[in-house]
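Appendix B. Chain record.
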Amino acid sequence: MYIVRMDKNRNYEEAKLQMRKGMLEFCTLLIISRGEVYASDILKELKKADLIVVEGTLYPLLSRLKSDGLLDYDWKESSAGPPRKYYTLTANGKEKLSQLKTTWKSLVESINTLIRT
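Structure tokens predicted for this chain:
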């Protein structure tokens, strides 16, 4: 029989990471909802909010959101190099964001109820 000793700090960090991953789509849609935005600007906003630390997490998410019909993009010329993709929300993306906002507000209320008790 093997006894597995759990590292409490590692479990906490893993839980924190999973919560952040779960919110990443919502937060990315929130940032894009402000207007046309370049991927590196999304990344800066997420890093500033301490929600993401690596580019390799954002680009697959943007690709999936585009495939799901939630995002669109336009190529724009850049004075600093090759053309860049600027993302916007589609009508479906706006609807999904609205649903996520409602879910978030309800979730925050539920958690705050639990914290207070």
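Further analysis of this model is presented in Appendix C.
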